[in-house]
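User: Show me a protein chain along with its predicted structure.
Assistant: Here is one chain, sequence first, then structure tokens.
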Amino acid sequence: MVVAGSLEQVRQRVTGRSLLLGVLALAAVVAVTATLLLVPRISSASAQQERRSEVLRAARQQAVNFTTLDYRRLDRDLGRVLDGATGDFRKQFRSGTKDLTQLVTANKAVATGEVLEAGLVSNDDDSARVLVVADSTVTNTASPKPEKRHYRIQMDLVRDPAVRGGRWLVSDLTFVG
């Protein structure tokens, strides 16, 4: 009977250890499965946030480019706008640069733009709409004292597939409100 009691204790220890190991194995499987299910979601959310940041960064820069002109460096300034533009907007802007050059040069205009705020209205993988609030401080021959001008701009942007990673370019620009 002493031997039988010892065998029973050994069985209980083995059964208890097996049960503990089984519970630990099940917990490990649940943890690995949960991780495998959550990682793609977290990665997707991170990619969306990165895309939003890229769009807003591009829109802010293009708003500064669009509201900053200096008659002494006009080719550079207009080139920056054209470099960040595409499609019909690029064509329309390019077609107006001759008249704009004459106007800005004749008036010795200097405008320095500043983005106050930008917000994403909508976006997907390849396009976005952004609203930008910007100011431009302007001086010219008619107004040598700096004047602040306020702009509310709606920009449509598209991802340029020709550039690795897809650079965001303005495809439409409209003054609103």
